[in-house]
Structure formats: C-alpha cells, structure tokens
C-alpha cells in the first residue's frame, strides 16, 4: 500500500460515488455511510460489481430481513438472528453471498458499519 | 500465618492470614467489598483504596492485615447504601463531584475522616486532607465543594433534601444528579476489575521491553510446568486474523515475528491465580534480535530507514491544506513571525487501569456458545466487530462496565483482544487485570506534533496568512491515524479568519508508543501553535493580544481553513464576556513584575468542531407499559455525564419525570450502534438521534392519544422508533487542497490564565483560570462546568508537567499526575447561544475545554518573564534554562 495521499485516499478513508443518480458516501470498506442511502438500484449496482448478476428470492429475503432488523434495532443482526429471520443456515447464506455475511449480505443490504470517529 | 480479627463495617470477621496480605486484597477478594479501588499498583500514590482504620484514613494497598488485629475498618460500603446514603455520599452527588467515580470512594473516606475531626474545614485543610487522593476528571474544584457541602450537612446548616432539584425546577438547564452518581458514591457501581468470575483464569502477558526487534524464539517449557498454569498462547494459536484493524490492518493481538514498540504483546500465560501467572511468566525465555530503532519521524523518513510495517510506508498519511495563496500573502504582510512548536507524547491517564474480563454464556442446543467481553470500550459495536475478525469467533457480545475515565484512550481495543483470545483458546472464563505500569505500556497515547509555523498580519492587524508544516509521530500502529490529522486540519485556523492558508500534515510510523485519540485528538496540538503564534504576532505589531484576537475573530459568512463558510460564530461575544476579567488581571499583574516571583496573564481561544463530515448516529426509543420511555443507544459514559444528557433530553422533550426514563447503553445485545463516545459528539449526534426518535414517538402518541405502549400497539402503531442524526455535509477533504466538508456545529471558548513564575527555580504556579464558553443550550450546568474544570486541569498538566516516556513513565508519580495541591481557582462564565441543529439547541463540550489551555499557559509565562517555551511540557528545567541561557 502506498502512502495515504493522492489517488490512494480511498484505501483508507471515505469516498463519494455516484449511484442511482445520486452522490452517495461510502466508508473505507465500501459500506454505505448512511442506511437511508440504500435503494434497490444501489443494491443491484453493488451486487453487479461483485459478480452477482442473478438476484434470487433468497437474496431479497436476506436483504429485506437485514434492513428490517436494522430499522428496528439500529444495529446489524448476528448470525443466529439472521438464521432465525431468514430460515437459512450460515453455510447457505454464505453460498448466496459469495463475499460472506458481513462484506456480502450486510454491505449489499446497505447496513452501515458501526461508526468510528471523524 | 496468623489469626486476625477485624471488624469491617460493623461486622466481625476472622482470618488466618500471611504477613504479606494487604487490607485492599482482603476487602476486595475475601469480603467482596469492591467499592475500594486500586489504581497505582499498590504504591500508595492514588488514594483510590483509602479506607478508615480505627478512625484514621489508611491506604489499604499498603496496610498489612497482620498489624490490624481487632481493628475497626470502615469502607465506602459501610457509610451508606444507595437506599440509605450517608450525608457525605449525598454531598458528592449533589456537588457534581462524581464523574467517572473511580476516585470517589477514596475521596469520600478521606472526607469522612476529615469531617469527623474538623467539621468546618478551610480549603487548605481540605487540600491537606485529600492530598493523597488523585482525580483525573474534575480538576478537584467540585470535590472541594463537595467536602464543604458535606460539612454543612453534618453541621445541620442545610440538608440534602433542600439541595435536590425540585420537579418545579424543570428539566433542562438544571443540575439533576447523574443517574449513576449514587451507585458510584456508595461503591456499588461495578468497574471491570470488580467483576468476579468463578474459576476464571488470570492472565499475564509478556511484552516487548525493546522498541524494535525480530522475534527469534520463544521457550515456554519451564513456564508450562509451573504450578497452576493452564497454558500459554502465542500468535499462532489465534484462529482469526490476529489483527485489530481500526482503519488499517497493522496491529496484532499478539506479535508473530516482530515487535515494534516497548509494550508490544508477545504471548499470554494463563493460570489459576495472578501470582501463579506472574511467576510462570518470569520463566519464559524470548530471544529477540534488535532492529534499527526509529525514535522520531525524521528517523523514519530517512532514505535508508527500514519499513516498520512491510505492507505500509513509514510515511503513512499525508494531507495538504491550501486556501488562497499563503506564500504570496506573507510576502506582502506588514509583519510575519516564524517559530517551531513541539508537543509531547502523552498518556491520557484515566485513573482506572486497563482491564477486561471474558466469560461464556450458554446458548441453545446447536448454537455456538457466546463469548461475552466486559471492558471499558467507548465504541462497543465497532470494537465487537474488530474482535470478531481478529479472534475468529462470531457469537460474541460486548458489555461496558462502569469505566474509570478514558479521555480518548478507549477509542481503540486495548486489553480486550488478549482476554478474548485467551477465553477462546482455553474455553474458560478469564480475567485480564494488568498493572498500571502494564496498562501504560499497552495503551495508546497522544501523538507528538512538530510544527513549523509562519503567521502574518497587515499593518492594521488583520491576519493575512498562516503556514504550518507539521510532522505527526504515529508511533508503531495506525489506530485512528488520519482521523487525527484530518481533525487538526479541519480546525487548523482555530477561532480566526485567515484568508490564506498553506499547511502540510505528514503522519509517520515510528517505534514509539502508538498514538490514537486523546482528549481533542489533534486540535490541542495545532491550536497550541496557532494561539502562541497569535501572541508572538500581536507582540510584533504592538497590539494587545486580546484586541488582536477579537479583531481577527471569524464572522458568520467567512470561511475556515477548509473553505467552509460558517453560519454561526460565538467568539466575539465570549471575548467581550472575558474583557472585564482580562482588564482586571492585566492591572493586577503590574504589581508583580519585579523580583524573583513574576506574574503573567495569558489568553487562548478555541473553536472545536462537533458533528464531523458525514457523521451519522442512531438511537432507539420505546414507550413502556407505564408511560415511561426506554432509550437504547450505545452511548458510553466514562464520566462525562452522557446518562444525564440522555435522561434530561428525553424527560424534557416528552414531558415525563426523569425517573421514568430508562437507559440501555452498555450492551451490544440491546443497543443501537450509535457510534463512539468520542469527538465530543455524544450530546450533539446521539442526543440528536434521540430527539429524532422521540419526535416520531410523540407524533404516534399524539395521533392515537396513546399514553402507554399497550395503548399505542392497540392503536396499530409501533411502540419503538429508531431515530437518526446526520451531518449532510459529507465526504473526504480534497486530497490536494484539504478543502471540503466540515463540522455542523462548534463549541467556543476563551480561556485566561493567571500564573506566577519562580525565576530562580523555573517553577510555574497557576493562580487562576477563567473561561468563557458557549456550548449552546445547557442541559446540566454541573456537568458542563465539570467538563470545563477537568479539562483546564488536564490542559495545565499537558502544558507544564505531563509526558509519557516509554520505559520510564511507569506510574502516577513518574507521570506527574495532577494533585489537589496543584489545583487552582477556576471561574466559568457560560453563554447559551442555541445551536440550530443541536438537540434542544445543545452541542458538546468535553474536549474543547482543554484546547485553549496550553497556549494560554505558555502565553502567560511569556507575559510574566519574556521567554517563549515552544516545546511542551514547560517543565521547571526548561523555564529555568530559557531564563538563564548562558548557564
């Protein structure tokens, strides 16, 4: 990794991307900064970037549960809650989202990372 | 061994005990009286362990039980309970003398002994009686006031009932006692080390004693055979990434092949008792091959310097800031000053040492067991994620115990990785309660800054340009790294309108202790340079420093160094509020210009941003069955009064009594992920999210007429709402110009120091500090002034005494912890300009309170003596050397 300057800013810090005809702020790990910036178009764009072109009912079920859970609790679900809420095992969930639960399902569902400080 | 009888809090106990057993351990371990605290490694330096033995105060950490046969011992639990508190305990609550509460039991016991002997003590007698008791939070002012109040209770001049706020007083702007204060006063608030776990393993950690070396070999063969040893854990035993990634993946839970600073952890040893763990650890043999040591950024930037991290350059972050054309403006300025300023590596110095315990919680069949981490985190959700990745275990939760201060030190994971790794490896409960010395070794520090500064003004005294080229000593690991640099740039121009700015910030890995958050985190360092430069320039152009500051105050419609135009700027009014105090002080010091002891007056200002670019917070509220409201928000309260803030905002907004507000703030299993208790953001951001949630609830209640959760749900509405608070001005600074988004609000302050300098010894004594402050609508006046007083005391320590030197700073004496003997008179003048987007008009204050302090102190030394100390801390040796350069 190079020094955190110039073109390498995105390696560490937040970045703004245009998506769904809007400017959207992402954190250094590629998560939405703001839960409310998510849309189905954002989801589809992020999914496509990760090679996920076939969106199935299972994807949508997971995304719906993730977003409902966050909207109620203000935090992401743990695996056990995800299993209960979707009826899918962790192994099945990881198959559905190749990048895993955090970087795949949670990120594509638009759940922000817990905030650091700024 | 010897049989000893003790009467503890009125109950008789018999013990058969060895000659080395101290009273502190007997009280805490054998009797479970954990109100008596430990901070200083049993050196008698802190007073947190103070109890009363036969009517006199005793430091229980030094008191051998052998000598106490038939002694009467009173601990804080023996004075009163939350249900039936002692008058002194109530006085500490009512005076606002309890912040983190870690020192409180010792303070209360010292007060009890004093008032038993002298019911109406003078301030000097109070200071003498409490001279062995340390406090990091309060600056001692409210502690002295608590002792005086307790005396008035005991003398029956007034009563606690007469002092408690009445319901008719309202909620906002009233000093209602903190929800947690009485538990802290009575010793029933459990801090991490107070948590007893049956059959838990105790941990000891082998840490590097050198700043940079390759790990050649580790021999634990002897240790593993020692009595009570459960085993040893090294990096290869950790199943996860072994990396505690905050922003950059560079810090291991346990070092695998290289150590990078004095204190880097190499292995964990677990045993049945702490003594067994320590004894076994002493037999471990680690062979280290020394590597070149980069002891400062300049070393690390040399062409031939080796990389401290293979995957990252030593220059780990660089950010310029360019506004206008500073070089050109300086050329055309009537006066320019140039100077170099240096700030030191410093310890945040919470009184409670680092501590974590971990245990397993049983789960339903087929589920992984849940690992529960209990510690001092101020960002439980983020830290939970770090630990899950580093340790390779998903089913975890983090619970925050009561926390004995933090001041930024707990923005990052410190001891939790060690405890979690051991609990996972041994599948046992563990306690990791390191010594103060080890806590100092392992924890983050305030970054040292080296700043080359130029500041110019025109002939009329208007600032023209500012240049600051600075190096930041990152230490060994990145932690929040560029956040500190960005914050220093976001606030680089301080309180002032500076049309042209040219700055360059470079952050560099070294083999020093890793830097991270420390009250203010960047702005105190750069503001020290700017505010001293302001005095230098005022001096050069022949203007009074007060008028120079007032003339150059930023005004609404003008822009900060980031280019962002401000809509509100409260400094001029604060300067005018300070004016009569300044004029008085200037007159008074004129009588003390001759002789050995010289007096001086110095000013500093601060404009501290709150609600950073893109900051978002969330908080959930629920209407309860009885019409009360539960708040679910991870809002750590290591002493600032966040529990008051959440309670009072809720009660005020919803029009319910404070006692019907229930707070859930400490557990990842039941809180919203509200973000860190850092950056002075809790009131503004989490308070803002709370108000947003309450607005939704209130609307639902108004629409349905419901007053309880049952009625609301019957009417088809949810009883729970998630609120959010966002700073819409979001995004990174421009990488080439440092221009871009900024904070949504500011807290402003002006501070004035009056001091005297002994020109023979170089000793500086603070006589008084006066501060004018505007933090918007005040929620709880005692909490506000408590932050200011503690912050000023901390700022004076930063200016005059404190420095962390790895391997040498080992305890509170070598750290030069502020004592009540160093305490000084403080006066606070509060203005309340509502912040348009703040919760009920409020903003934060917790860090700004020390931002102007160090330069005000240094400017006062200059005013007294004519010398500049540009290299903090301004120790007597440095002052003396500057006064007598030929010697």
Fold and architecture overview:
Chain A has 118 residues and is mainly alpha-helical. Chain A has 6 helices and 2 strands, in the order H-E-E-H-H-H-H-H. Chain A has a two-stranded antiparallel sheet. In chain A, helix 5 (90-96) crosses helix 6. Chain A is globular, with a radius of gyration of 15 Å. The relative contact order of chain A is 0.15. Chain B is built from 26 helices and 28 strands. In chain B, helix 13 (380-391) links the parallel strand 15 and strand 16 (396-400). The radius of gyration of chain B is 27 Å and the shape is globular.
Structure in a nutshell:
The complex is a heterodimer of chains A (118) and B (887). Chain A has 118 residues and is mainly alpha-helical.
Average pLDDT reading of chain A: 87
Assembly state of the chains shown: heterodimer
Structure classification of chain A: mainly alpha
Q: Please state the CA-atom Rg of chain A, rounded to the nearest Å.
A: 15 Å
Number of domains of chain B: 4
Number of strands of chain A: 2
Q: Topology as H/E string of chain A?
A: HEEHHHHH
Q: How many individual β-strands of chain B?
A: 28
Shape-level CATH architecture of the largest domain in chain B? 2-Layer Sandwich
Give the fraction of residues assigned to helices of chain A. 40-55%
CATH hierarchy, class of the largest domain in chain B: Alpha Beta
Apparent shape of chain B: globular
CATH topology call of chain A: Arc Repressor Mutant, subunit A
Q: Main β-sheet of chain A, in a few words?
A: 2 strands, antiparallel
From the N-terminal CA to the C-terminal CA of chain A, the straight-line distance is 22 Å
**Rg calc of chain B:** 27 Å
Low-pLDDT runs of 5+ residues of chain A are 1-11
Envelope shape of chain A: globular
What portion of residues of chain B belong to β-strands? 15-25%
């Amino acid at each position: 990794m190079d020094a955190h300057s110039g073109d390498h800013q995105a390696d560490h810090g937040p970045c703004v991307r245009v998506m769904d005809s809007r400017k959207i702020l992402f954190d250094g790990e590629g998560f939405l900064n703001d839960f409310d910036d998510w849309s189905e178009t954002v989801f589809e764009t992020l999914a496509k970037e990760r090679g996920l072109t076939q969106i199935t009912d299972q994807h949508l079920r997971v995304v719906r549960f993730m977003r409902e859970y966050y909207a109620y609790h203000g935090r992401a679900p743990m695996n056990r809650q995800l299993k209960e809420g979707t009826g899918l095992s962790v192994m099945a969930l990881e198959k559905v989202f190749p990048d895993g639960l955090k970087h795949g399902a949670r990120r594509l569902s638009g759940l922000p990372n817990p905030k650091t400080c700024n | 061994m010897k049989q000893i009888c003790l009467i503890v809090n009125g109950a008789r106990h018999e013990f058969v005990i060895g000659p080395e057993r101290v009273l502190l351990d007997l009280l805490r371990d054998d009797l479970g009286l954990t109100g008596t605290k430990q901070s200083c490694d049993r050196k008698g330096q802190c007073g947190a362990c103070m109890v009363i033995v036969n009517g006199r105060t005793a430091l229980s950490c030094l008191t051998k039980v052998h000598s106490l046969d038939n002694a009467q011992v009173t601990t804080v639990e023996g004075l009163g309970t939350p249900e039936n508190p002692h008058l002194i305990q109530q006085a500490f609550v009512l005076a606002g003398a309890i912040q983190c509460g870690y020192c409180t039991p010792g303070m209360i016991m010292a007060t009890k002994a004093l008032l038993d002997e002298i019911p109406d003590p003078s301030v000097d007698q109070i200071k003498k009686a409490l001279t062995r008791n340390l406090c990091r939070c309060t600056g001692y002012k409210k502690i002295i006031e608590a002792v005086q109040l307790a005396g008035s209770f005991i003398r029956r001049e007034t009563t606690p009932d007469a002092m408690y706020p009445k319901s008719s007083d309202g909620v906002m702007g009233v000093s209602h006692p903190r929800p947690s204060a009485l538990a802290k006063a009575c010793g029933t608030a459990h801090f991490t080390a107070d948590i007893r776990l049956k059959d838990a393993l105790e941990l000891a950690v082998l840490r590097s004693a050198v700043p940079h070396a390759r790990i050649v070999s580790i021999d634990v063969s002897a240790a593993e055979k020692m009595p009570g040893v459960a085993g040893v854990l090294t990096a290869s035993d950790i199943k996860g990434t072994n990396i505690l990634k905050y922003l950059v993946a560079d810090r291991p839970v346990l070092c695998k092949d290289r150590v990078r600073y004095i204190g880097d952890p190499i292995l964990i040893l677990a045993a049945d008792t702490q003594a067994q763990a320590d004894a076994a650890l002493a037999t471990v043999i680690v062979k280290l091959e020394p590597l070149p040591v980069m002891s400062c950024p300049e070393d690390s930037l040399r062409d031939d310097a080796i990389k401290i991290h293979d995957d990252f350059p030593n220059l780990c972050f660089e950010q310029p800031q360019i506004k206008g054309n500073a070089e050109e403006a300086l050329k055309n300025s009537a006066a320019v000053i140039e100077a170099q300023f240096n700030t030191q590596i410093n310890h945040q110095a919470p009184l409670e040492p680092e501590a974590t315990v971990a245990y397993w919680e049983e789960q339903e069949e087929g589920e992984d067991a849940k690992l529960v981490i209990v510690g001092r985190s101020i960002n439980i959700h983020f830290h939970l994620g770090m630990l899950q990745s580093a340790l390779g275990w998903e089913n975890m939760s983090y619970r925050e115990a009561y926390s004995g201060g933090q001041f930024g030190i707990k923005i990052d994971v410190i001891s939790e990785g060690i405890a979690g790794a051991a609990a996972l490896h041994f599948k046992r409960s563990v306690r990791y309660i390191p010594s103060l010395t080890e806590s100092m070794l392992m924890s983050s520090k305030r970054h040292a800054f080296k700043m080359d500064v130029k500041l110019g003004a025109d002939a009329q005294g208007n600032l023209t340009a500012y240049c600051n080229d600075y190096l930041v000593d990152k230490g060994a690991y990145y932690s929040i790294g560029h956040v500190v640099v960005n914050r220093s740039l976001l606030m680089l121009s301080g309180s002032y309108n500076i049309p042209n700015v040219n700055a360059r910030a470079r952050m560099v890995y070294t083999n020093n202790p890793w830097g991270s958050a420390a009250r203010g985190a960047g702005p105190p360092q750069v503001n020290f340079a700017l505010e001293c430069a302001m005095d230098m320039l005022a001096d050069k152009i022949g203007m009074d420093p007060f008028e120079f500051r007032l003339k150059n105050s930023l005004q609404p419609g003008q822009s900060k160094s980031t280019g962002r135009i401000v809509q509100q700027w409260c400094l001029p009014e604060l300067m005018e509020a300070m004016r009569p105090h300044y004029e008085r002080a200037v007159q008074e010091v004129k009588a003390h210009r001759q002789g050995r002891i010289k007096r001086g007056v110095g000013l500093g200002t601060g404009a501290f941003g709150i609600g950073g670019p893109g900051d978002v917070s969330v908080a959930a509220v629920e209407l309860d069955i009885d019409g009360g409201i539960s708040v679910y928000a991870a809002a750590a309260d290591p002493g600032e009064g966040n529990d008051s803030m959440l309670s009072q905002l809720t009660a005020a907004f919803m029009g319910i009594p404070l006692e019907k507000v229930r707070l859930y703030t400490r557990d990842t299993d039941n809180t919203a992920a509200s973000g860190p208790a850092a950056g002075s953001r809790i009131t503004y951001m989490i308070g803002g999210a709370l108000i947003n949630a309450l607005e939704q609830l209130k609307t639902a209640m108004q629409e349905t007429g419901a007053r309880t959760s049952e009625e609301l749900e019957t009417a088809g509405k949810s009883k729970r709402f998630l609120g959010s608070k966002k700073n819409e001005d979001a995004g990174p600074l421009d990488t080439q110009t440092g221009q871009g988004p900024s904070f949504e609000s500011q807290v402003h302050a002006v501070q004035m120091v009056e001091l005297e300098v002994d020109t023979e010894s170089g000793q500086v004594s603070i006589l008084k500090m006066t501060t004018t402050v505007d933090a918007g609508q005040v929620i709880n006046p005692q909490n506000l002034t408590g932050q200011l007083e503690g912050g000023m005391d901390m700022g004076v320590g930063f200016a005059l005494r404190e420095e962390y030197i790895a391997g040498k700073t080992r305890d509170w004496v070598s750290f030069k912890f502020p004592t009540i003997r160093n305490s000084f008179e403080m006066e606070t003048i509060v203005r309340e300009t509502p912040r348009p987007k703040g919760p009920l008009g409020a903003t934060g204050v917790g860090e700004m309170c020390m931002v102007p302090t160090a330069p005000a102190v240094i400017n006062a030394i200059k005013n007294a003596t004519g010398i500049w100390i540009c290299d903090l801390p301004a120790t007597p040796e440095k002052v003396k050397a500057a006064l007598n350069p030929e010697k």
